[in-house]
Amino acid sequence: MAQKVLIIGGTGLTGKEIVKALVKDKDIEITCLTRPPTPKNPTSPFLTSLQIPLLPLDLSTTTPLSTLTTALSPFPTIISCLGFSSHVTELRLIDALAGLPLTRFIPCSWATPCPSGDIMLLRDEKQRVFERVWQYKIPYTIVDVGFWYQISLPRVASGKLDGLIVLDAGDKFGDGKAENLLIDKRDIGGFVGEIVKDAGTVGKWVVCWGERIDQEGVFRVVGEESGEVVEVRDVSFLFPFILLFFTGKFDRVVGCVREAEWREKKLTHAFHPRSPTKV
Prior knowledge:
Layout: E1 3-8, H1 13-22, E2 28-34, H2 45-50, E3 54-56, H3 65-72, E4 77-80, H4 87-97, E5 104-106, H5 121-135, E6 141-145, E7 147-148, E8 171-172, E9 180-183, H6 188-196, E10 204-209, E11 211-213, H7 215-226, E12 233-234, H8 239-247, H9 250-262, E13 270-273
Parallel strand pairs: 1-2, 1-4, 2-3, 4-5, 6-10, 7-9, 8-12, 10-13
Antiparallel strand pairs: 9-11
Helix pairs in contact: 1-6, 3-4, 4-5, 8-9
């Protein structure tokens, strides 16, 4: 019998990739939670085109917690892709899940591996979510992913890569020789399908990636494949001071330095590697 999975945030950059992969998996039956449609905000055409079951539900405080709990109870596996700006909503979601006989809850992480504590603001906000999950002893799997290729490639003069790039990554940090984990965002959904079907990943922190490569290696490959000169901007010296000038927060500057140091360290999580998708 197919495993019933509820996906929350299935129209975002990460959520959409997970939906597209799991809808093809015969061992998984997915439902997508959506905001109740209105004339100004109808249901996403992406979701309606897939003809999958939808659960219209408002996770905000306007909906009683008991109503949320009842609506979520039929789903043994719940995946959250709510996004960084919705961590307060996710905390309320977790409150609603407390006490339900879940098989597993996958909170919204989908970030690069990094310890908490004034290194990466995104990571610290997610830590609050993880701690709420642990507080209620909810069965979980936390899934981190490598840096997307789509935010790791520098642009070239011809613009031939622009259709693949979400964020220009022509800034080189340090000497550019610290290895990083990279992943094509289109591969994330396939990893999630494997994780959901693997009972051994319950209670684990899993990292998914396609390739280990440093920035110098990325610049070299882009240059070779495009036949163009890659313009690299060395910002390693100026960036912390620019950040200090605009924010006035010295702790964030220290955080940038710590993050750069962390990238030099060996990762010690449980890994799910596989070959990357060729762009």
